Amino acid sequence: MNDQKEMFRTGLKDSVAIVAGFIPACFTFGLVGKGLGLGSLEVFLLSALVFAGASQFIGVKMLAAGAAAPVILLLTLIINLRYLFISLSFGGQLNRNISVLARTWIGFSLTEEVYAVSMIPREEANRKTENEKMNQLLGLPYLLGLQIPPYVANLIATASGITLASYIPALYLPALNTSLYALLIALVVPQLKGSLRNMAICLSAAGSSWLLNPLLGNSSILIAMLIGMAVGSLIKGQVKAEKGVSV
Amino acid sequence: MTILIIIGMAVITFLFRFVPLLLTNHTNGSSKVEALLEYLPIAVLSAFTVPGIIQVDPDVNLVGIAAGTVAVILVLIRKIPLLLVILGSVSAAILVKMLTLYF
């Protein structure tokens, strides 16, 4: 019982960085959605029900432009297909005894940031049992602690953005949104040190995503991900040992 | 109608994230698939981050580039907490934005 509370607290602590990134991003989303002329309820529901960064922004733009439903849904399908892979990889790390009901919530609120924070091992001053933690599967208390605060922050920040849409100069908001990406960089870059394979995966995925982006838009992510994984499997050497690679 | 489209988007997104969580309960996956899945976090997060951060400010790409560069540098200096990395990166972005606005 105490152990569960402890794990919940660890989750809460790990969620702080995600919340810090979500607040400006979701605030901007509320603001942009209102700015494009959509109704408050619609903007809010996109955040509350879809809860998937990039596709929300695209959805809100297309809805405002009056795009046809099949087009919007098809685009959502393509852009969010990456979650299928993310979820497949994440599911392997879940504790087997987590119920289907709990998995419903875990799946619903599984964003890139949650995935990154829970899958990538970190070295922090007060993180005592790094190896133990990584060998353990992800438990429900930890995930509740990790996933609830970002979702609540998403709701509150979106609502604030919608409410304040007419008062705030939007000039600096894009700059604030770099926080989401800074979090991901902070988690990925330490994994590249000392691992030729990880470095190759990162550079090939990032490079191809950047090159394909003008052609394919946001679906470049999916192709680039596959390229990165293919490059990873081409590089021989330390087959297993890398998972817990130290920072 | 708009609300229905939003619900449709929500259902698609939800199914992608939820269904695999049910499947993996039973996988004993081949080692090849497992190895590929091991590469997935870095591959997908790199692919997601790089065009994303560059386009974060559609008017001034330099804002995102500066933020990303500062984040990488701060991460490479050891023992800096996540929040400080984020703070430093965002400060760089705001600074660059200010410079482009006033000069």
Automatic annotation (TrEMBL), chain A:
This is Branched-chain amino acid ABC transporter permease. It comes from the Bacteria. It comes from Paenibacillus etheri. GO terms for cellular component: plasma membrane. One of its GO terms (biological process) is L-valine transmembrane transport. InterPro entries: Brnchd-chn_aa_trnsp_permease (IPR011606). It holds the Pfam family AzlC. It is a multi-pass membrane protein. The chain crosses the membrane at residues 12-32, 44-64, 71-90, 142-165, 171-189, 218-235. Belongs to the AzlC family. It is found in: Cell membrane. PANTHER family: INNER MEMBRANE PROTEIN YGAZ. Keywords: Cell membrane, Membrane, Transmembrane, Transmembrane helix, Transport.
UniProtKB/TrEMBL annotation, chain B:
The keyword Cell wall biogenesis/degradation does not apply. The keyword Transmembrane helix applies. It comes from Paenibacillus etheri. This is Branched-chain amino acid transporter. Keywords: Membrane, Transmembrane, Transmembrane helix. Pfam families: AzlD (PF05437). The chain crosses the membrane at residues 6-24, 36-54, 60-77, 82-102. It comes from the Bacteria.
